[in-house]
Each structure stands twice: as structure tokens, then as C-alpha cells.
Specification:
It contains 10 helices and no strands. By secondary structure, it is an all-alpha fold.
């Protein structure tokens, strides 16, 4: 197998979802542009081109409000599954492993192997940081995208109000507005529902060959077992 073919095979999961993301983002941009211009025409204003639309606060807030909810989901899931379990779910670790587990189980410090990441073998702050790096990065991306949503949302909210000859509001005022929290909570509730559904449905349902499912013949009570 050639090197490019091997690269594609070894990274097919990331590549497939990455390409799907770009195609979906492009589709959102096209349909969002059409919808935005329809609103402008309804308000008696001139439509704008596609590229200028990509620089608008309307496009930015539509993108970032979804990003922040997705990364909130992963942040909560990564940290939550350290201490929370679901009997029978492959999305949960085994019931007796609640907590951060021992250095031996986590292969850190003196228990690191030659193939372990360098920071896993460190006994200082590097190991502490690296052992929580996934959750920390997810939290940072969530907070950044939530901040971006609030800033772009303020601009979009004020643009709409100015078209209706209403006074604009400040960023702080927008943070307490119904528009901001409606945008935020409608995404949060859907993400939390999806995680809860996956955790409990995977106890009783199967998907042959998927690591997100238990083996088809595994008992419903088997926990932390992947297919």
C-alpha cells in the first residue's frame, strides 16, 4: 500500500468527518446567504454578495453558537466520565474504576512505558497538565467560541434592531438578553439529551463492529466493554 493510501486509511475517521464538516459549513454559508438576503429584501434593503455575507455577524453567530455547544458537550463528557458511570454502557468505564485511577493503571511516572508520551513520564507539572490536557483544551475552545458567539451575537442583534429603527444595546446588556440565552440553551439542551440518550441506549442496543457499541452478544450489564 502506498504512503498516501496508508495515510488515508489510518486517518479515515478524522478525514471523513473533517470533509463532512467543510461541506456542511459551505452548505450553511450558501443557504444562510440566501436567507439573509431574503430578510434584507423584506426590510426594503439591498441584498449583499456571498463574500460580504461571510464577514457578517449573522454568519459568525450562527456558526459559533453551534461550536460552543458541541465543545461544551465534549468538555462535560470528558470530565464527567471520570466520576460518573452508567452500568451496562460502553460509554462508561467499569464501575470499580470511578475516579482518576492509580499511576499504574494510567501508566504515568515510574509506570510509564518507553512508548508513553514524554510528559506522561514526568513527575511534575507537565504530567499534571498533560493528564488533563484533553478536557482543558475542550474547555478553552468552548469558552472561546461562547465568547465569539456573544460578541457576534451582539452585533447581529444590534444590526437587526437598527434596521427596525430601535436603539442598540451593549455587550453586557446582550449577555442578559433573552436572545443570547435562547440561542445558547436551545443548543445545550440538545447536546445533553444526545449524550444521555447515547449512554442509556447503548446499554440495550448494539451496532456490530462499532467501538461505540458493545459486542452484539455482550450482556446488557457489561460495562465499559467495546465491540
Amino acid at each position: 500500500m502506498s504512503r498516501p493510501a496508508r495515510f488515508v486509511k489510518d486517518n479515515s475517521l478524522t478525514l471523513a468527518f473533517g470533509i463532512g464538516f467543510l461541506l456542511s459549513l459551505a452548505g450553511q454559508a450558501v443557504t444562510g446567504h440566501a436567507d439573509f438576503n431574503n430578510q434584507l429584501v423584506t426590510d426594503g434593503l439591498q441584498p449583499i454578495g456571498f463574500l460580504p455575507y461571510l464577514a457578517t455577524s449573522d454568519f459568525a453567530v450562527d456558526v459559533t453558537e453551534n461550536w460552543q455547544s458541541e465543545y461544551l458537550q465534549f468538555f462535560l463528557y470528558v470530565f464527567g466520565t471520570v466520576w460518573l458511570v452508567q452500568r451496562g454502557s460502553p460509554e462508561s468505564k467499569e464501575l470499580h474504576k470511578i475516579g482518576v485511577e492509580s499511576d499504574r493503571e494510567q501508566k504515568v511516572g515510574d509506570h510509564a512505558s518507553p512508548s508513553s508520551p514524554a510528559w506522561a513520564a514526568d513527575k511534575g507539572w507537565r504530567q499534571t497538565l498533560y493528564s488533563r490536557s484533553l478536557g482543558v483544551v475542550m474547555a478553552v475552545i468552548f469558552l472561546w467560541s461562547w465568547l465569539a458567539q456573544s460578541i457576534s451575537g451582539t452585533a447581529a442583534y444590534n444590526e437587526e434592531h437598527l434596521r427596525q429603527l430601535q436603539a442598540p444595546i451593549s455587550w453586557v446588556q446582550y449577555l442578559g438578553s433573552a436572545d443570547f440565552w435562547n440561542r445558547t440553551l436551545q443548543n445545550w439542551q440538545s447536546e445533553l439529551l444526545a449524550v444521555a440518550s447515547m449512554a442509556i441506549l447503548s446499554v440495550y442496543l448494539r451496532q456490530r463492529g462499532s467501538p461505540e457499541s458493545k459486542p452484539v452478544g455482550a450482556a446488557h450489564s457489561s460495562t465499559g466493554v467495546e465491540g
